[in-house]
Design a protein that fits this description.
With about 100 residues, the protein is of the alpha+beta class. It is built from 4 helices and 4 strands, in the order E-E-H-E-H-E-H-H. It has a domain of about 60 residues. A two-stranded parallel sheet has the order 1-4. It has a two-stranded antiparallel ribbon with strand order 2-3.
Length: about 100
């Protein structure tokens, strides 16, 4: 404050799943997404329909969100359960990846 300068906003508190992706995309997205079944309203289900099959799981939604935030050729480093590798509910997400 004494210098008369404002720092740039580095963190935004929001509902990330409902917010539009930023115009700038990232080379690397790292995360440990939340897990658990999620009930989605019609608008959110429509937004993530490309990666959904059956019921929605939060880490699947956040993985789709990471794809929207990552540059083509970028890297997503996420901690995910093994059900992602073979579970039927994640077949659309695996196909998207």
């Amino acid at each position: 404050r004494k210098a008369g300068r404002r720092l740039p906003v580095m963190v935004s508190v929001c509902d990330s799943l409902r917010r539009s992706p930023p115009k700038d995309r990232f080379d690397l997205v790292i995360g440990n997404p939340p897990y658990g079944r999620a009930k989605l309203d019609a608008e959110t289900r429509e937004r993530y329909k490309r990666s959904l099959y059956g019921h929605a799981n939060l880490y699947g939604l956040f993985t789709d969100l990471a794809l929207r935030h990552t540059k083509p050729g970028g890297v997503i480093a996420y901690v995910t359960p093994t059900s992602f590798l073979a579970g039927v509910y994640f077949k659309n997400l695996r196909a998207l990846l």
